[in-house]
């Protein structure tokens, strides 16, 4: 909570991926700008299995949500806006270990560079698509140059 509060006080956009899923206290979520759960975490946190419904409930607690949907892409929702479904690049997955972490890490980089959400999601999706094409966790995470060649 203190880290999120300090970051927010300095104008830093805060991103939280709730893995492993557990109840999230309001005092933490009060300082989170973007929540990035996978579809199972979103369902657990919201009580809704359908990603659109889950995102709408989560938006009551944070301003923006991206629900990752694996090979189906991700759903971006923001308060006051229409949800947008972003398709994932079509690839043959060898190992999905680390794909979520790769997506969120690349997303944070792109948003930190002040890229628009659609561009940041494309960058993150390309990174995750590259990740799943190799076995392993950290060893499958792509280099920036590889992501930029795909995005």
Task: Describe the protein.
It is a single chain. With 151 residues, this protein is an alpha/beta fold. The chain folds into two domains: 1-87, UDP-N-acetylmuramoyl-L-alanine:D-glutamate ligase (3-Layer(aba) Sandwich), CATH 3.40.1190; 90-150, no CATH class. Helix content is 42%, strand content 11%. It is built from seven helices and five strands. It has a five-stranded mixed β-sheet with strand order 1-2-3-4-5, with helices on both faces. Helix 3 (39-46) packs across helix 4 (51-58). It is globular.
User: What does the average pLDDT come to?
Assistant: 95
**Strands of the biggest beta sheet: in what spatial order?**
1-2-3-4-5
Rg, Å, rounded: 15 Å
What is the CATH C level class of the largest domain, in words?
Alpha Beta
The parts where pLDDT drops under 50 for at least 5 residues are: none
Level-2 CATH architecture of the largest domain: 3-Layer(aba) Sandwich
Number of helices: 7
Superfamily at the CATH H level of the largest domain?
A: Ribokinase
Order of helices and strands: HEHEHHEEEHHH
Q: Please, how many domains?
A: 2
Structural class: alpha/beta
Biggest sheet statistics: 5 strands, mixed
- As a percent range, the share of helical residues equals 40-55%
């Amino acid at each position: 909570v203190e880290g999120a509060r300090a970051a927010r006080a300095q104008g830093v956009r805060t991103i939280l991926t709730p893995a492993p899923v557990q109840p999230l206290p309001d005092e933490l979520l009060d300082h989170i700008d973007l929540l990035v759960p996978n579809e199972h975490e979103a369902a657990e946190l919201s009580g809704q299995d359908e990603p659109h419904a889950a995102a709408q409930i989560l938006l009551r607690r944070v301003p923006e949500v991206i629900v990752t949907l694996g090979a189906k892409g991700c759903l971006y929702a923001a308060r006051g806006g229409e949800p947008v479904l972003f398709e994932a690049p079509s690839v043959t997955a060898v190992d999905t270990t680390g794909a979520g972490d790769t997506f969120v890490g690349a997303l944070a980089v792109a948003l930190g560079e002040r890229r628009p959400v659609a561009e940041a999601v494309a960058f993150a999706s390309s990174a995750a698509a590259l990740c799943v094409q190799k076995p392993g966790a950290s060893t499958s995470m792509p280099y920036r140059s590889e992501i930029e060649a795909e995005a």
